[in-house]
Hints:
Chain A has 17 helices and 23 strands. By secondary structure, chain A is of the alpha+beta class. Chain A has four domains: 12-104, CATH 2.40.50.140; 136-269 and 529-575, Bira Bifunctional Protein, Domain 2 (BirA Bifunctional Protein, domain 2, 2-Layer Sandwich); 291-412, Gyrase A, domain 2; 428-526, no CATH class. Chain A is globular, with a radius of gyration of 30 Å. Chain A starts with 17 loop residues before the first strand and ends with a strand. Chains A, B: Belongs to the class-II aminoacyl-tRNA synthetase family. Type 1 subfamily.
Amino acid sequence: MYRNNTCGALRASDIDSEVILSGWVHKVRDKGFVVWVDIRDRYGITQLVFDEDRTPKALLSKATGLGRETVIQIKGQVIERASKNPNIPTGDIEVLVAELQILNESILPPFTIEDNTDGGEDIRMKYRYLDIRRNPVKDNLIFRHKVTMEVRKYLSEEGFIEVETPYLIKSTPEGARDFVVPSRMNEGQFYALPQSPQTFKQLLMVGGMDKYFQIVKCFRDEDLRADRQPEFTQIDCEMAFVEQEDILNAFEGLTKHLLKEVHGIESKDFPRMTYDDAMRLYGNDKPDIRFGMEFGELNAVAQHKDFNVFNSAELVAGIAVPGGASYTRKEIDKLVDWVRRPQVGAKGMVYVKCNEDGTFKSSVDKFYDQEDLAKWAEATNAKAGDLICVLSGNTNETRAQLSALRMELAERLGLRKPNVFAPLWVIDFPLLELDEETDTYHAMHHPFTSPKPGQLELLETNPGEVKANAYDLVLNGNEIGGGSIRIHDKEIQATMFKHLGFTPEEAKAQFGFLMDAFQYGAPPHGGIAFGLDRLVAILGGQETIRDFIAFPKNNSGRDVMIDAPATIDDEQLKELHLKVDL
Amino acid sequence: MYRNNTCGALRASDIDSEVILSGWVHKVRDKGFVVWVDIRDRYGITQLVFDEDRTPKALLSKATGLGRETVIQIKGQVIERASKNPNIPTGDIEVLVAELQILNESILPPFTIEDNTDGGEDIRMKYRYLDIRRNPVKDNLIFRHKVTMEVRKYLSEEGFIEVETPYLIKSTPEGARDFVVPSRMNEGQFYALPQSPQTFKQLLMVGGMDKYFQIVKCFRDEDLRADRQPEFTQIDCEMAFVEQEDILNAFEGLTKHLLKEVHGIESKDFPRMTYDDAMRLYGNDKPDIRFGMEFGELNAVAQHKDFNVFNSAELVAGIAVPGGASYTRKEIDKLVDWVRRPQVGAKGMVYVKCNEDGTFKSSVDKFYDQEDLAKWAEATNAKAGDLICVLSGNTNETRAQLSALRMELAERLGLRKPNVFAPLWVIDFPLLELDEETDTYHAMHHPFTSPKPGQLELLETNPGEVKANAYDLVLNGNEIGGGSIRIHDKEIQATMFKHLGFTPEEAKAQFGFLMDAFQYGAPPHGGIAFGLDRLVAILGGQETIRDFIAFPKNNSGRDVMIDAPATIDDEQLKELHLKVDL
């Protein structure tokens, strides 16, 4: 038996017990006459003590020689600590060691196994198995487990069945790129790894499974932006005989359950906002509503004066920065520089200081009087002491720029509090998105998303205006889930494919099995998928998904620990009937 | 709202309620003046009624025209049935329909959606989404969900953390063949799909995760034997600071929990048997102990007479077939033919009838007298009325043949009862297995399996005799789980690699990251992996894993529903820097 207690278990009530502990040497403090060794495992740290009076000389010297991260087993007696440590649960006791066995040595780790390590990101990823010994990483993984257990418990109790769908499926040119898997048994043919189980979950609805979910890995071979992973995990869900309202209620319930179980938060009903309103008020389809700073549109009050920059703009919009009237000229200049960075791309910024005495001081006093500026303040909901920042130009670009500025300022002002959770449903997404390069429409969500009732005709006349039964769940400015009511009618589906530029033959080749299935009595259905990595990170009060994945890949899609991907040998290629052609 | 009740919910207590139901038309019985329609969903079947007296004519005729599998929504009133059906939970009531809406039509399904369908395996697989509507398949998938939920609940409550390990890993030539995944971003390089998360779970132990589990897909590109799948699901587990006893106890606990939750069975402690005993008594390392018929070894009592077939055999062994003394000559001849089939491969079979009067009648009476045969009966534990079947020859072959005969006879005698569960631990597996073709040893379990304490020296002198800290959990003659205590000492690991024929360079190239990790204080650890597909099938009282997989592949590794694998287009190949070379 390696242990009868963990290193986090012993308390004052255990004093006098004989215990066996196993774990890693966390720290050795050698005072000569007394040696303290902290022994660590997943559950905590216990202080071991060896001293001149009570410890045989050989044992004392063995303890003195213990290196960090050595794996040891000890037997000893729990005793009261002379100087208690109220900061750790085992702080009242220590263990007077009678026997010490070294189970495994450790060479010097490349970084310290401490909450605040001296190791940089690269070295910690290469030695991820050591990084995981650190509380911040270990706790994140345990937190992830807790969240997924709660998801499964909740959905299962709500009658959802977790069904495993296949990983070796078929490549479709649609959407982001598939990873493919050559088949040895079927020469020259390839499986594909799923980008999502979308078609399978719809087939399960055709199959009468009624309520499906799955926590499942998905794969996307796309150029990796920061904090994207080529393999990622979804909570994938689908329900039959539902309308949008049923789905929103079901998964609002799940999210409330998680906030309650994980943080003890009782949530009110989640607010809902249309996509159009989200874009108008926040310039963003995933607004962070932990704070205000909604956009005020100023066209009506700022145009038709002599300021040509505004007059020629499609949109003039501003936000009120709380307390910003006190910014110095230098600080404001820096803010102007910030919005002009290529990543943001604004040409310039107009500002208005709302002075405490009710007067205004702006960068465009030449063109606007106090009365004009008072209207701006009203439109942006600015109060005395605030700074109004105004951007202008093309509507979409201006909204994106102002949204970036809003987020940046909120970050600086400490308004994006990690322990505050502000969920929001964004609904009524456009069905189609115009690809301006090719001047073709593609599905904003995916090609099975149903248009809003009565809007099918618009597809012919004004496809960009058609709204979908599609919705996102947004949490603290991040899209954590998204879904739609699907098309279950094969005529409507055929119309959709036509508008997405598929010939009937192409549609059949790619989605034939789904369209075939829909001939046999497909029920009305819809669903949602949550990005688990991000959901867990945000619930954990953080934003970097990599910190919540045990063995993540870097931005080049490489696992630097195991050094993958790698070349494979010619024999293996030959069996797969493949040649590498660089 | 599509429904306010499911089709399995309504009872006598709901009589007079107004209800809305949605589902599929299961059956229409048209008596002219009255039409009954069974409406079906995941939860059950409810009888709808339309009749001349109470139903408007148009509605009655609409009901008459309903085709099977049409998706409908109805509103109506729950009424008491005239002739109740005690065989279904909704059998006391029917719904008098006031409104009927057709939600979706169905063309004629290729087979009937009934428990006993007229559809063969091939057609059901092609239209799996329709097959899933059938209770036997649907119930299996729901059963699978229930089992996995219980696994997760139990392990989670026992302190295990589910950690997701990566799917895009690195190919190793070791063991069965990897599926590989070309990387677009890393030209000419490949990921591999995991055959198991073995190395990652060991790294998690090095990382201090202490107790890990994961229900995870694994992949093996090997020639498919019947009832194997290229992608399969494991319950993968690992624990640190454990000895074999700790693992057996932990997972015996899990298995008992499942038997209790799923079947209400309170299990006694599971018997344990060494590999050597299992081979000696059952000719099999996964004996079905729902019934006896243990082997009796007869060398001592059957050799050194004049029967040369036995005298020249390495092993003479028999089993007692309960009640077999009554078999006719013709039946016994058929049994002899059976063991001589190429799939079994015995040269012949000797038999002894144990007559009710205590005498014996054998096929070798020329060579053995009654006293000899009494000794055979004693050795095989045969009773009056039994038939002793005796095979002989090379030990391994004879055991395999006799094991096949034992299983066949048990099947015929109805001794393999699907609702009886007989778990068994088989322990002390050999560490190495001789590959007779190449005369080299390879790891029976895998190369990280630790030898039994004190047996390391045998590796030099008699490697085939070394026993491992390896164990299988057997249920009803199927290996449902297997594992081992791992080597955590890098010296022992190096010795193992040497005996497995790896040069230090080869070992480093393949397992370098694991061996590196072991330098930093690897704890003693061990684990087990359960084959979930098989576990669920056996707990479900069946043996075909395909019946418990939503979308299985056929014996050629093809998904006939989506027609995968398939060719991919040249553009995609070019991006991956690959050429197909048939």
